[in-house]
Every structure is written in structure tokens, then in C-alpha cells.
Amino acid sequence: MNEATVDPALVRLAKEAFNATWDLLDLPELSGEDARQALERALGSRYLWERSGAATDNERCIGDWLVGHVLCRIGQPAAAASWAQACADRVAEHRWEDFRLASSIEGLARVAAGLGDRAEFERLDAEARVALRSLSAEDRAVIAGQLDSIPRPG
Predict the structure, then answer these.
(1) pTM for this one?
(2) Lower CB count within 10 Å: N or C terminus of the chain?
């Protein structure tokens, strides 16, 4: 990243779109319009990071995770799979062992649950919970909450 090519206005918009996505995801239920806006904002944030010139693999990883999360939340787990996998691939490439590892596994578990793959969901859920052990209490609580929010496959 070259600071001379970073567009601070686009960085600000990327962050705003990210936070606006979470404003919607924090709702107990999403209307059809809420779902559309959540996806639009998540994709917008991911795109704006790239356009800003400030995207690192960290922002790409988190952005991919968020798009996958939204797609699962709005009932599109098959579409979410490539986003969740892109996040997991980036984590593996960098050998990250922090919250990004646990989050990437949570994202894959969410996809498996959405696709109705109980065995894969259970395997990934257990793997994510092992990854939680090395995290700070705050990160552990956030990601455990995300794991707990996954509708269990039948």
C-alpha cells in the first residue's frame, strides 16, 4: 500500500458501510429490504476497501467473512460458501491464529449449517471452539456468541 494512493474518503465510506451492515445484522429479524441493504452494505464495504487503496489482507479477510455472514443470514448459504472459503484461505495463507482463525472457522460452520450438513457443521463448530481457547476474553465472547447464533442443522 502506498499512502499517496490511499483515498481517505473511500476508507471512511468503507468503514461506514461495514458498521451499517452490523446495524442491520444486530436486528432480531431482517425484513426483505433489510436483507437487501445488509448485503449491499457488506459488498459495498468490501469494494470500497479495495478502491480506497488501503486494503490489506486483513481487511480483505474480514470483508470476505462479513459478506459470507450476511449471505448466510439472508438464506443464501451456497452463495456464502465462496466468501467464507476466501476468508479461510487468507487466514491459512498468513497462518493467522488469532480471532481471524476462529472467525473463519465460524464462517465455514455457518455455511455448513445453512446447507444442512450436520456432520461438517459439528466438526467445524468443535474446531472453532478449540480456536477460541487462545483468544482474549472479549474476542472469545464475540465469536462464541456468533457460533451460538448459528441455527443448528436438523
Answers:
(1) 0.94
(2) C
